[in-house]
Amino acid sequence: MGETVKVRGDGSAELVKSMADKHVGLVRPAAKYYSAIKDAMVSGKGRYTLVKDVDEVENGVYDKPLPCFGCGVGWFSFLLGFVLPFLWYYATFLYFGNYYRKDPRERAGLAASAIAAMGFSLMLLVIVVFRWF
Fold first, then answer.
1. pLDDT class for 122, splitting at 50, 70, 90?
2. Range 122-128 average pLDDT
3. Under 8 Å CB-to-CB from 94, ≥6 apart: which residues?
4. Residue 87: exposed, middle, or buried by beta-carbon count in 10 A (0-12, 13-18, 19+)?
5. CA 8, CA 11: separation in Å to the nearest integer?
6. What gap in Å lies between CA 49 and CA 1, rounded to an integer?
7. DSSP code of 104?
8. How far apart are CA 24 and CA 60, in angstroms?
9. CA-to-CA distance for 35 and 19, rounded, in angstroms?
10. Strand positions, DSSP E, the chain
C-alpha cells in the first residue's frame, strides 16, 4: 500500500513501509480498503487497485464481540454485583491480574468493578465498626 523507496547517501535503495502498513491487522477492514483506494487515486490515473470482495472480509483484532452478552466481563460483573457483590471481587482479581491485556475494551468495566468492591468493603467496615461501639 504505502511502500516507498528511500535512497541513501551511498546510492543504495531501501524499501520502506509506512506505520499504517506495519499495523494493518489492527485496522478495521473498511479502513484498509479506503486506504487502498486512496493510494490508487493518488498514484495516478489509469492504475487500478484490486479491492477484495465482501465475502473475503478479514476481521480486525477488536471486531469480535465481547463475552457476557457483548458488554464484557467487567461491566457484566459490575451490573450483576449489585445482586451478588462477590462478583465485584472476582472482577477486581481479574483487573489486578491484567486480564484486560487480552482485550483493552475490558479495562473500564473491570476498573468500575474494582471501585465498587472497594466501596462495598468500606461500607461493610463502617457497619461493623459502628455496630460494635
1. very high
2. 92
3. 73, 74, 100, 110
4. buried
5. 6
6. 10
7. G
8. 9
9. 13
10. 4-7, 13-16
Cell numbers representing residue 42 in the block: 493518488
CA angle 105, 109, 112 (to 5 degrees): 145
Amino acid occupying residue 120:
F
Q: Tens digit of pLDDT for each residue in 11-62?
A: 666 666 665 555 656 656 655 555 555 655 555 555 665 666 656 556 677 7
| Cell numbers linked to 16 | 520502506
Mean pLDDT of the chain: 76
Which of 31, 10, 28 has its CA nearest to residue 2?
Answer: 31
pLDDT tens for 98-115 read 887 888 888 899 999 999
CA 36/CA 77 separation, integer angstroms: 41
How far apart CA 27 and CA 2 sit, in angstroms, is 15
